[in-house]
Amino acid sequence: MQLAPVLPAEQWICLEIEVIHVEPDAEVAGTVDGGRHQRLLRLVTERARRRGFPGWAGLVCDVAVTEVDVDAAAITLRASTRAQELAATSGDCARRLEEIQYTVGVGPGVEAFDTGGPVLMTDLTVAHQRWPGFEDAAFADGVSAVFAFPLRGGSIRVGTFDLYRRRPGALSADQFADAAVLADLATTALLTDAVPHATAGQTWDDLPGHYDDVNVATGILAAELRVSIEDAFVRLRAHAFSTGKAVLDVARAVLTHQFNVDTFQD
């Protein structure tokens, strides 16, 4: 899913009072101060003016890379293991690691969403297969530390804000506080990018989702194998895991008839 502009860049500085405001999570409220929030919001707004406006969620990821001293960032909408959507990333590394979490069903973002608390893995070499499949992919991309924050709209979890760093080590107190504020802004970004506006060209409802091919391939397998959608997705994911491929790549292979449906029989 690509993000489309909802408001002109010059209006973003008024975002909190003009569109949607989400209160900071109570668990991190102690680390969040008004000055920090305004500083980071200003950086997001200034970046929008400099680069054009690809969508607010994408800008939050870009600011995270520079301000939290990480190498990649991603925002993923989550409702369940199968119902996910990649909203924005800072680049290819974050995209690949979000896709592998979707493929294997485990990872820092999955855990942060399930538990409702931040997941701070400062050194993946001591993870001891905490997230089978994900760790090898992270090492292959040169990632040594991961930090995932759940995103909440009120009491409802809506997704995760995942940060990746090539060197091991913990976030400093200031970096953690900045990440907490950016997670709050990311929640607002998800809600705001989805709100129709008179000046917008398109909103999320008009754009293809990042995992649409997975959804279509799952439906095809369910119909051909006469199984449930959930069972079809499990089979698609299992094949991806066993062959070392992303589930998105396997889904596209199904859609282009590179696999016989019997491949996914029990």
What does this molecule look like?
The two termini are 32 Å apart. Helix 3 runs antiparallel to helix 7. The protein has 10 helices and 5 strands. It has a 5-stranded antiparallel sheet, with helices on both faces. The chain is of the alpha+beta class. Helices cover 45% and strands 13% of the residues. A hairpin with a 2-residue loop joins strand 4 (145-153) and strand 5 (156-165). It folds into 2 domains: 9-193, Beta-Lactamase, CATH 3.30.450; 212-264, Arc Repressor Mutant, subunit A, CATH 1.10.10.
Task: Put the structure in a nutshell.
The chain is an alpha+beta fold. It contains 10 helices and 5 strands.
Name its key features.
266 residues, alpha+beta, Beta-Lactamase, Arc Repressor Mutant, subunit A, five-stranded antiparallel beta sheet, 10 helices, 5 strands, globular, disordered N terminus
